[in-house]
Specification:
single chain, 529 residues, twelve-stranded mixed β-sheet, four-stranded antiparallel β-sheet, 26% helix, 21% strand
Length: 529
């Protein structure tokens, strides 16, 4: 096992130059259910302690059906609520959780056996009926859950609880990866409302929400009757600070045990751990508006970006240049798809050609980026702005909060806002390009602005395949996007950097950025209470 505290190889660490240097080189308090503050059994030296985690921002919601949103999932998934099955982030294999087994029992039907002896944090017993209810609520309801669009698209499911310990799920078309999809559906009790999303969820996880002080903190307490192993820390508390240096200082001052998304300059410290987080940054070019509706202009932007320069100067080398939306290890990723090399002269020529044909290339493009998306996001946005201006385009940067950025990211997309280049960070934790394609590449995908009929057909066909055929089909359509649509200017496959107190032991993995399992955090050997 690797040490939970790691460092970069020699030559990869460097102080971050200023943005100017890069440019010159381009180069209400709500209460949850009450639970006890301790659990039976030996919880280790952490008994009596609170695990303190500092995030980049306050979660917009703790609604379980929104847990595929990073800012929500990092708190909710596997801490408060749990799915039927979970994906091992290292091996990619599916493991039983609230389901003890599953098998395909028909061309379009899967059967799941559910775990007995499990209770929700409100004391209600968990049965297959709750699982069926949760799937129906998340996928088939009018709640417009993010998991519905991200994982299932427009497809409804037929769900039936055969008895208290077995349910069947039937899909409109054969789906070889349905169990993987269901790993994104968090299970809630049947008493959960269906008319509106909840603010404070109830689940079967090892922690329950104790309180949410809006703008201040979210507090969790260990659930006494959790069916699995009791986590070491009886309490957890999330706070949020937008400044990466402040988050890092909270580790140094013993004000937090875990701090997320630290600046790459902190990588030298013994109290940081870097990890590949399966996130890919890209510019999504809105092809509904001129000049971004012109393929030449979109190709020009792709050619204008100095990926390695941004990575070296602004991301501290903690990333790799990207040529596709899915990173290595995800079904559909192709090593044959290489990142576009910067070619400013060719990019300028394409813009000039488009302008000569009447394309309004002087129209101002708004580059929208979210505060706190990753360390160095504002500097990255400025660098992209500069590089786009260098090829003859007019660009302004708008840094936005999460709620505003989501308005630009998710359908229904805002109208009358002019041409938009949206800086996104897409994490494919599911390990299959189908989730990326259905969201980001389909013409009417929840996070796509346009596409092509041919690409839509190929996405549908690839989704019916398995094994090597599935891998090849998705790799080919990702390459085709780059050739014929160019909705995305891919920038980098990212890595995360955590701050970790010497008082704890935790080994981050590729899922940590979206699903930080507090039960996997324990006291370090010799740590004092």
């Amino acid at each position: 096992m690797k040490s939970p505290v790691s460092s970069l190889p020699p030559g990869r660490r460097r102080p971050r130059p200023t943005t100017a240097l890069l440019l010159a080189g381009t180069v209400l308090v709500s209460s949850g259910c009450a639970v006890a503050n301790s659990a039976g059994g030996d919880a280790g030296q952490a008994d009596g302690r609170t695990l303190r985690v500092v995030l980049t921002q306050e979660p917009p919601t703790l609604e379980p059906c929104e847990a595929s949103l990073t800012s929500t999932g990092v708190v909710v998934r596997s801490n408060i609520t749990e799915p039927l099955v979970e994906r091992d982030p290292d091996s990619g294999e599916l493991r039983p959780l609230l389901a003890t087994g599953w098998k395909q029992t028909g061309p379009r039907t899967w059967t799941f056996d559910t775990r007995g002896g499990v209770t929700f944090q409100n004391g209600e017993p968990f049965t297959a009926k709750d699982a069926a209810f949760s799937i129906d609520r998340a996928v088939n309801s009018d709640l417009a859950c993010n998991v519905e669009g991200y994982v299932f698209g427009d497809d409804d499911l037929k769900v039936k609880a055969v008895d208290d310990n077995r349910l069947t799920v039937t899909t409109p078309e054969p789906d070889p990866i349905l169990p993987l999809r269901l790993s994104f559906v968090e299970i809630v009790p049947r008493s959960t409302g269906t008319k509106a999303k909840v603010r404070v969820p109830i689940g079967t996880g090892p922690y329950a929400v104790r309180s949410w002080q809006a703008g201040t903190a979210i507090s969790l307490s260990r659930y006494d009757d959790y069916w699995g192993k009791a986590p070491a820390f009886p309490r957890a508390r999330y706070v949020w600070r937008s400044d990466a240096s402040v988050r890092a200082a909270m580790i140094d001052k013993d004000e937090a045990e875990i701090a997320v998304a630290l600046d790459s300059m902190e990588a030298e410290k013994d109290t940081t751990a870097s990890y590949p987080n399966n996130e890919t940054t890209a510019l999504r070019l809105d092809g509904r508006e001129a000049p971004l509706d012109d393929l030449r202009v979109r190709r020009a932007i792709d050619l204008a970006v100095d990926r390695q320069g941004i990575i070296d100067a602004l991301l501290g080398g903690l990333a790799e240049p990207a040529g596709q939306l899915v990173p290595p290890g995800v079904v559909g990723h192709s090593d044959a798809i290489e990142p576009t090399r910067q070619n400013v002269d060719k990019a300028r020529a394409l813009v000039k050609e488009a302008k000569a044909d009447g394309v309004p290339t002087g129209r101002t493009i708004t580059l929208v980026a979210r505060n706190g998306m990753f360390s160095g996001v504002s500097e990255t946005a400025e660098a992209l702005q500069y590089q786009m201006k260098e090829i003859g385009l007019s660009v302004k940067v708008r840094m936005a909060d999460t709620a505003t950025q989501l308005q630009y990211q998710l359908r229904p997309l805002p109208k009358n806002v002019g041409p938009i280049a949206l800086l996104i960070m897409h994490g494919n934790q599911a390990g299959d390009a189908a989730f990326t394609a259905s969201q980001y590449l389909l013409s009417d995908g929840p996070q796509s602005t346009f596409g092509s009929r041919e690409l839509d057909r190929r996405i549908a066909d690839a989704g019916l395949l398995s094994g090597d055929e599935r891998q090849q089909a998705f790799a080919e359509l990702l390459a085709d996007q780059n050739d014929t649509v160019v909705q995305y200017t891919h920038i980098a496959h990212m890595s995360g950097l955590l701050g970790l107190s010497p008082s704890i032991r935790y080994e981050p993995n590729s899922a940590t950025g979206d699903e930080m399992r507090l039960a996997e955090v324990g006291p370090a050997e010799g740590a004092k209470d």
